[in-house]
What does this fold into?
Amino acid sequence: MRHAPRQRGFTLIEVLVSVTLLALLLAATLGGIRTVTRAATAGALAAERTNKLRVTQEFLRRELMQTLSTPFEQEETTGKTRVFKGETDRLTFVAPMPGYLGKGGPYVQQVSVVRGPRGSQLEFRHALLNGYRDEKAKKVDEGEPVVLIEGIRSATFEYRGLGDTGQVTGWESDWDRYGSAPMIVRIKLEFERGEHQVWPELVVPLMLDPLAAQRALEPQFGPSGG
It folds into this structure.
């Protein structure tokens, strides 16, 4: 009788080599997937940060340009009123809110830089003007803040307006004049290194007196006002 030929199988070495090659292939594939995932996540975060920064600047520009010459504070002894108060890290003014955020009518609005969990942060607060002046204990900074931007390393608010002689002043670090508002506001921010963001310098003319605001802008942007 003839015996059937014996079938040759894989040796142990061949199995080990195959398993090793398969493991290397899987590791390379997983590494590529992780790299692509990290890149996609980083790109999405960068786009989100850029969009948030753009929306913040558009919101601040819109609200500041709509500043009203409506008093929100009054000195009890002299009767002098305040329509705008600017500090190096905080500004308070009156303007209408966007329709989807407000209930109609002017609001006392405040933009400030305060310490937060990720460095300093830019916060926005608002309170309806109706009844605001009649409640002595009420302050706009008692409202719930809306965080606009985080991760700020340094911030500077500056103001330019007309001096006592009627000439346009240089940039001032505060504006505490009764009955008047600056003609333009400049907001400069620098972010922490890990934030990987750049804040384009924001210069906003207040439209209380458009011609005067244009005069104030000329030293920075030229006669065309930018």
Remarks:
- The CA atoms of residues 158 and 173 lie 5 Å apart.
- The first strand starts at residue 73 and ends at 74.
- The helical segments are 12-65, 210-221.
